[in-house]
TrEMBL record:
Coiled coil ranges: none
The name this protein goes by in its record: Glycosyltransferase family 4 protein
Annotated Pfam families: Glyco_trans_1_4
PANTHER family, per the entry: SULFOQUINOVOSYL TRANSFERASE SQD2
InterPro entries found in the cross-reference section: Glycosyltransferase_grp1
Superkingdom of the organism of origin: Bacteria
Length: 363
């Protein structure tokens, strides 16, 4: 198929790394691996931080993109479908619906989400559009059960399909694990909100096992770096290693030398870093919160503890540090889990299964 791909929150070619950008890139590669010809329809970002946000020139930019793509498709022929990744109340797809109607194309969403609590200001208008397009879409791909249930409740009768979060495993699987005893690793951006909340929880948990023999490597950077460093300032010098932002290959190298991946995961939609860590052979310690259980299987690939319980989080870490046979068992299971169930080739086949029927529902 010829697929026009669009990610209104963060384009695959956006300069700032994030989980959204990574998943957008992986979807493109998985679609291409399935034999499809994928083109990036537009890089226009429609992110509205607040319901009162007014993005200067957005309306004109949207219209210009519609006209540009219309001319392009009239000259070269339209694609077979429009694929929109991660449209929600803050980042609506203002381009695809109009073009799909004009050219009679099927519309497909991936990781669309709806929240009744967000029907405020411009967000309410965005959700009205989202609700309409979810109902018309040939298929809506849901990465989590929470998103699937949310769409099913908001738009009864919508065509929904589950597709599990996945990664390109090659940078992580190709490196054999070489864990350093007691080496903990976390990979996360340093920004306000849920990320900062997770750093607070992690520092509190580690303070409860400060008498044990462990070190922590932190991969990540961002506007809250000084605040994050302050959280861990009470630990002995050299115990925390600040590695900053690294390339994917460098992250894989760090993970290959780790024993346990530790990250509470507050507000995580699912967390691709968990899959990367498991592919590298690290069992995970996280909270059983948000979308984390979608990517970490408690007792099989890691340990999930109750949210907001630093003692339970600390005890889970301590248990793996003290029980190498169990840690090794989880490590091997984690690598198998990601390789056999959450790899790009597996999801390329799944995408082919769900996209072909979507062609029967042009707008």
């Amino acid at each position: 198929m010829r697929i026009a791909f669009y990610a209104p929150l963060k384009s695959p070619d956006h300069p700032v790394p994030s989980g959204d950008r990574l998943m957008a890139r992986q979807l493109v590669r998985a679609l291409e691996e399935g034999g499809n010809r994928v083109t990036l329809a537009s890089s226009l970002r429609t992110f509205h931080a607040t319901p009162e946000t007014v993005l200067p020139g957005l309306e004109e930019a949207v219209q210009a993109e519609r006209e540009r793509l219309s001319r392009l498709w009239e000259q070269n022929g339209p694609p077979d479908l429009w694929f929109c990744y991660h449209s929600y109340y803050k980042a609506p797809d203002l381009i695809g619906p109009d073009l799909c109607r004009r050219f009679g194309l099927p519309y497909v969403t991936a990781e669309a989400s709806y929240s009744h609590r967000r029907n405020l200001g411009c967000w309410a208008r965005h959700q009205d559009l989202l609700e309409e397009m979810v109902g018309l879409a040939g298929v809506n791909l849901c990465f989590t059960e929470r998103d699937r249930l949310g769409l099913a409740q908001a738009v009864p009768g919508a065509r929904l399909a589950r597709i599990a979060p996945f990664i390109d495993t090659s940078p992580f699987i190709e490196r054999p694990p070489a864990p350093r005893p007691g080496r903990l690793v976390t990979v996360a951006m340093m920004r306000p909100g849920d990320k900062m909340s997770s750093y607070v929880a992690l520092a509190e948990a580690l303070s409860l096992i400060a008498d044990l023999d462990w070190s922590l490597a932190i991969v990540g950077d961002g506007p809250e770096r000084a605040a994050v460093e302050a959280l861990f300032s009470g630990f002995a010098p050299g115990r925390i290693e600040w590695l900053g932002e690294l390339s994917r290959g460098e992250v894989a190298e760090v993970l290959s030398g780790g024993s346990v991946f530790v990250w509470p995961g507050h507000g995580e939609a699912y967390g691709l870093a968990y899959l990367e860590a498991q592919a590298a052979g690290l069992p995970v310690v996280a909270e059983q919160v948000a979308g984390v259980p979608e990517v970490v299987e408690h007792g099989r690939t890691g340990l999930l503890v109750a949210p907001g319980d630093p003692r339970a989080f600390a005890d889970a870490i301590a248990s793996l540090l003290a029980d190498e046979p169990r840690r090794l068992l989880l490590s091997k299971a984690a690598r198998r889990f990601v390789s056999e169930e959450r790899s790009q080739p597996v999801m390329a086949r799944r995408l082919s299964e769900v996209l072909v029927p979507a062609l029967e529902y042009p707008l």
